[in-house]
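A brief tutorial aside. Many learners find it easier to grasp structure tokens once they have seen a single protein encoded end to end. The record that follows does exactly this for VOC family protein. Read the sequence first, then the structure, and try to relate runs of similar tokens to stretches of the chain.
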Amino acid sequence: MKLKNILITVDDIEEAKKFYHDLFGLDVLLDSDDNVILMEGLVLQERKMWGNFLQQEIIPENNACELYFEERDIEAFAQKLKELYPSIHYLNLLTTYSWGQKVLRFYDPSGNLIEVGTPNFS
């Protein structure tokens, strides 16, 4: 068995495609309107469509999971995030943990939690 994709729900597909391309360089592999597959196996689906499919309420900023990215030059990434998305909602600003890893946590425009950390824990 092989994990193929991770699906997150978004309020606005176009806004989400731009966000994930601008910050993480994830290009669109397949675009079928309410369902978009990006590089690295990230799938974006309109929240309304997903909620209708599940017949459940979809709750943004629920902190039940996060997307994790690694970035060597995290200070430059933090500056890029601040410049491109000045009103982004942070869970925590750039923090250095006791084991040496630097981490930044924030929500995408649809309330999905994202963590960006340095790859080396030294």
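Self-check: Residues 24 and 75 are 15 Å apart (CA to CA). If you spotted this yourself, you are ready for the next section.
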